[in-house]
Amino acid sequence: MLYLTLVYVHVLAALLLASAFAVEALSLWRMRRARNASEAILWVEFTGKLPIVVGLSGLVLLFSGGYLTARMAAWSLAWPKVAVVALVLIAPFGAISGKRIRAIRRMLLSETNHSAVAGALNDRFLTLSLNLRLWIFSGIVLLMTARPGGAASLVIIAVSATLGLLSAAIGSRRGVGLTALDAPAPTRG
Ligand code: HEM
Fold first, then answer.
1. Would you call 169 helix, strand, or coil by DSSP?
2. Is residue 185 part of a domain?
3. Structural domain for 146, as ranges
4. Does a structural domain hold residue 104?
5. pLDDT of residue 102
6. Ligand 1 atom closest to Cα of residue 83
7. Which of 52, 69, 94, 168 is 20 to 30 Å apart from 58, CA to CA?
8. CA 173, CA 124: separation in Å to the nearest integer?
9. Contact 64, 13 (CB under 8 A)
10. Closest ligand 1 atom to the C-alpha of 80?
């Protein structure tokens, strides 16, 4: 019963993490196309609680995954170890993106000059980090479902990371075209 409950919690945490990525992607996309600062503020507010959701679901995935692996007596296999490493590897990218998005939020709210905000929003690292995390996340899901051997596990994560880099490069080449962020932010009081 405990095992099945933890499988459920594990999958729920994976869904939560995927939803958080979707919210981050949508907010970033909409912020970059905002017609004015008020619209950008509306979208940046969506990311407010994301660090908590991402941090909690990441920890739940790690600990529930660790327990499930132990119960399956699968720690001698490669895929759980590769999954742990991949999950730990993507964490700093999420942390740095979160920090930069919080800085953008502060800039927007403090009515900093808008070309500085546009510059921060155009930051290519945000695109790179999001693409890398999304693809490595999907690689981990493949590890969970296919449970491959050592070499195949490493190839899956390496291919996922490469796809993340490629999709980020394509996304950056298209450009974000943030030119309309020119109206002043509303005064708050
Ligand atoms: C982003 C990270 C992770 C995601 C998205 C994820 C997702 C999933 C999913 C969707 C399943 C169900 C697969 C199935 O039943 O066919 C699963 C099962 C499992 N996961 Fe993860 N997982 C993650 C991290 C981890 C980690 C780090 C470990 C090991 C330390 C782990 C260990 C397991 C185990 C042992 C199962 C099998 C449970 C069972 O079927 O009895 N997971 N995971």
1. helix
2. no
3. 2-174
4. yes
5. 93
6. 27
7. 168
8. 10
9. yes
10. 29
